[in-house]
Amino acid sequence: MFIYTIYLIVLCLILTVIKLRPKLLEPTSGGNIPGPFPWPVLGNLRLVRRLCKKFGGQHKAFLELSKDYNSNIINLRLGHSDVVVVCGYKGVAKILRDETFDARPWNEFTKIRNMGLRKGITMNEGPVWREMRSWLVRCLRDLGFGRVEMSDKIRDELVIILQQLKAKGGGILRMNPIVAPAVINVIWSVATGKRIEDEKRLRYFLDLMERRAKAFDIAGGMLSVFPWIRHVAPKSSGYELLMTVNEELKLFLMETINEHKKTYTPGKEMDLIHMFLAEMYNGKGPEAGFTEDQLLMILIDLFIAGSQTTTVTLDFMFLYMTLHQDVQEKVHQELDSVISFGRLPQQTDRPLLPYTESVMTESQRLRVVTPIIGPRRALNDTTLEGYKISKGTCILMNIYSIHTNPEDFDDPEVFKPERFMVNGAHVPHKKLIFFGGGHRRCPGETLARSAVFLLFTGIMRNYKLLPVPGKELDAEPQPGLTISPKPYEVLLVSHST
Description:
By secondary structure, the protein is an alpha+beta fold. The protein has 17 helices and 13 strands. Heme binds at residue 442.
């Protein structure tokens, strides 16, 4: 009798699945937004992972789903969380400029990223966030952002790079370890007033930032989807590693903050930390948000947003130069005609180098380091391209879908700098998004643009990048929360024309 009961239950389950199957395959509706059916517990996680593996990253997976549902806006359930993904310029542009979407979600991922502190510039929101962001922009301007003083700091780092390369005599090497110390030191000098002279300390900080980025790429998404997994499997989920790296980073930066507290003299603020201490001690004070924890998170935001993205952007540019020797030759010809041998590039050279500018733009178009930006949180009920967006909805924006739209860029997957050249002049496309937009536009944009231009042109003016004989180069990036080139080597040869 028991066996027959089991058979009956199984038969009922099969019939139920058959009956419901058409409904299971219908798009779900998150405020009438189309998307795949969310299965219990996992939601759409398995589908997204399969598409990521098939197409090479989350940004491509989301674009394929957008095509499947014939909609620039799709609804996904990742674990227990509903997420709206927006493709295409129209929807993304609205989110970037509309204050309704200025907020951030506060989930397990953002808590870990912010060390449990709802502070800083990147993952914060509200009146204190606006106060801190305005303060930071003013301070960066006072410290020379966009002026000769900032260019001089970058050029000083360029001199060190060129001296190191000359001492090595070129040869086979990786470009990332060459430029990463320069980028870190530029930001460090802005924050602390001096560069990291201790090589061991510098390498530790670089390794710390790299380990943190890799750990978030591996574990960040999983912890956001299944926050409870940190209790069940703290080690295998990556949670334990993230907490360890976070603590290391906090100790490293707090050591510098405490040194500045000992040497602080009112009226003699020459770096970002001293400027913050002035506000904390003698300005608006902790009541306005100027606390030690706030300073810690602002520094973390600066280094996370500035160091990794700028270094990886340059790494992609050098990779494309090695892959496209014909393009590199044109870059050399233009640089040689504007910058005499032995002279360092300067910002005033930029308008005179339209082809080089187009090369840098094309590299960033194809390989923007953050192809998915966000997350954002809707502050109120609203609409987006005719769809209802409920208050509290988490939103991701697919920048890759804009940069590879065939309606705006012919042969979008082809590296073609000439697309930004019109009558011998560099003309950037209006739909390119490299630094976000609106109230959350990257405050370090000026520094990043200057660093990329001066370091790229400075190295390219002095060296040729050739493929290593017998080794193939692959332009496909490593997927993750951010993308980066697969580790590669180049043959560096002096260019002294």
